[in-house]
Amino acid sequence: MPTSLTDQVVVITGAGRGIGLATAGRFAAAGAIVVIGDLDDDVAAKAALEVGGRTVGHVVDVADRASYARFITFAEQQGPIDVLVNNAGIMPLSPLVDEDDAATDRIIDVNLRGVITGTKLVAPGMIARRRGHIINVASAVGRIAVANGATYSASKYAVMGFSEAMESELAPDGVRVSCILPTVVDTELAAGVSAAKGMRAVRPDEVAAAIIGVAHKPRFETWVPAWSKGLFYSMNALPRRVRNTAGHAIGADDALRKIDVDARQDYERRASS
Ligand SMILES: NC(=O)c1ccc[n+]([C@@H]2O[C@H](COP(=O)([O-])OP(=O)(O)OC[C@H]3O[C@@H](n4cnc5c(N)ncnc54)[C@H](O)[C@@H]3O)[C@@H](O)[C@H]2O)c1
What is the CATH number of the domain that holds 187? Predict the structure, then answer.
């Protein structure tokens, strides 16, 4: 039986814009009580107003444990947390040799440490209630690492590894862990990034729909679009040399290298602040 989302308390980080905002809209429409977190109080409050229903917003920096803990305490005023969507993430792009240490730390702290911290904060309550679902928004680059985004790729690979361990650790307690692996999504984070040949950037709402599907029926690994999972696993079965040639032919290896730098300027500034 699919899980009903009516009256469920759903916490979504980084839901002030992009995939998180679209996901908040879908959960609210399904009758959930949605708690939006984002870096900026105004952004979170505006998003909550836009989503409507019983949605509330609060500031959170997932890279800062104390801030994340305050956010979870705020969310719990709505009731015990049923679903946590670890969605907040950043993608500054550059060759590794040009990436300063502050940027490296920030990518790891937001994309990986944030997921670990969020899990630590909500898992005890979920274990005690013997129910709950943690949905981590990873990325296709959590399975296919690409040039010009080495630290980003590493952070998403790590999220996949962490999630796999947590799924087996928490399943006996009735708590589920799922991952979402979108390809290129049309949000500010992917400004100036083109999809591989034969593919198109997916809309944030398509990712949101996949997340809702997983919330109804937990499944460990969901790619968006769904068919990209089959493409990845069949290519992965090929010898590395053949796989590299095929990846190069569709431009997948250059997806984060052949970018429109001007189109990314605003995003890169936001992601580094
Ligand atoms: N857009 C893509 O192509 C794509 C593809 C695969 C995976 N993803 C992943 O999807 C997730 C959402 O990305 P998006 O494309 O919607 O990006 P986005 O930049 O449009 O939105 C991300 C939101 O997260 C917030 N945020 C950033 N750092 C934060 C922090 N420390 N604490 C709290 N909030 C923070 C931002 O303020 C922003 O509102 C990310 O984890 C990203 O890695 C995106």
Answer: 3.40.50.720
